[in-house]
């Protein structure tokens, strides 16, 4: 159940107040009647934001959000597969600036997210175990900009700098304190372009290049995967089918078939997708 309201204080100030009550139940579905692996938990979490709009195109905002996150079941790649981790409450603070016109868009935000830490540990038996202990503290800055070079061509740039660390762990995991969480890159960046084809109504082409900085394979920060960049291209075609609005989308991912590592697995090879959406 979510309730929210926006309050207006004069011409320039707005406040957002909200509350969310979540009742989460995980049933005993592990197939073992001798062990009760289910649980039930409830939490009421707030949403608070303050916005200052100096003009129709410019806004400065600050927000605080809490959220109940369901506990996850440990996957098959771990020695303790099937174990159910507890539900937790995450917290996010954000301070940002937005500017948006038909030609230029800019967003800059500083944020901090705290979540329960899921620690990957390689024990003496050489097997990997996933446990929940302490917090992952993500602090970062994100900047995203887009510019309409012409009426048909729009370019975009974006980057996220992330300072992530593991904190508040029990003495058993003291060696992990201050480590960077597995899979968390310090720097990610994106460049993209979108071009509306003149003379072909509804057709647009797009492409992007994404950069992912180096990341640790596990929370013990012993083995790292190198940075990599991926490119993709695609198209969108808006039309009608039997009088209904339709959108045909095609994409080619990992255009140059770059080999790269993600946490615990190889990245996907070059691939394509085609989808059709019809609204009625």
Percent of residues in helical segments? under 10%
Radius of gyration: 23 Å
The number of helical segments is 0
Unreliable sequence segments: none
Tell me the strand order in the biggest sheet: 1-2-3-4-5-6-7-8-9-10-13-14-17
- First-last Cα distance: 29 Å
Q: How would a textbook summarize the main sheet?
A: 13 strands, antiparallel
Measured by DSSP, the beta-strand proportion falls in: over 45%
Number of strands: 17
On the 0 to 100 scale, the average pLDDT is: 92
Order of helices and strands: EEEEEEEEEEEEEEEEE
Shape: globular
* Oligomer designation: single chain
Broad structural category: mainly beta
Your description of this structure?
The structure is a single chain. The chain contains no helices and 17 strands. The radius of gyration is 23 Å and the shape is globular. With 280 residues, it is mainly β. The protein has strands at residues 2-9, 13-26, 39-52, 58-69, 88-100, 104-122, 128-148, 153-167, 187-196, 203-212, 215-216, 224-225, 228-241, 244-253, 261-262, 265-266, 271-278. The strands form three sheets. A 13-stranded antiparallel beta sheet has the order 1-2-3-4-5-6-7-8-9-10-13-14-17, with no helix packed on it. A two-stranded antiparallel ribbon has the order 11-12.
């Amino acid at each position: 159940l979510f309730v929210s309201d926006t309050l207006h204080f004069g011409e320039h100030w707005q406040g957002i107040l909200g509350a969310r009550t979540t009742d989460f139940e995980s049933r005993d579905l592990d197939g073992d009647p001798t062990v009760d692996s289910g649980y039930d938990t409830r939490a009421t979490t707030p949403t608070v934001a303050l916005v200052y709009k100096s003009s129709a195109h410019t806004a400065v905002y600050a927000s605080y959000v809490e959220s109940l996150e369901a506990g996850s079941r440990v996957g098959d790649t771990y020695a303790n597969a099937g174990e159910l981790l507890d539900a937790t409450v995450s917290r996010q603070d954000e301070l940002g600036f937005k500017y948006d016109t038909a030609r230029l868009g800019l967003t800059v935000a500083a944020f901090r997210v705290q979540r329960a830490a899921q620690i990957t540990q390689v024990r003496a038996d050489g097997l990997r175990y996933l446990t929940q202990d302490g917090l992952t503290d993500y602090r970062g800055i994100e900047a995203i900009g887009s510019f309409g070079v012409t009426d048909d061509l729009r370019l975009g740039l974006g980057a996220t700098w992330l300072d992530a660390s593991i904190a508040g762990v029990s003495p058993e995991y003291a060696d992990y304190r201050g480590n960077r969480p597995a899979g968390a890159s310090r720097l990610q960046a994106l460049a993209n372009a979108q071009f509306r084809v003149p003379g072909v109504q509804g057709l647009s082409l797009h492409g992007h290049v994404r950069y992912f900085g180096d990341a640790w394979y596990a929370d013990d920060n012993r083995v790292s995967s190198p940075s990599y960049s991926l490119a993709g291209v695609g198209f969108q075609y808006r039309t009608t089918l039997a009088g209904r609005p339709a959108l045909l989308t095609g994409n080619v991912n990992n255009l140059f078939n770059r080999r790269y590592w993600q946490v615990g697995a190889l990245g996907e090879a070059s691939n394509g997708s085609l989808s059709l959406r019809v609204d009625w």
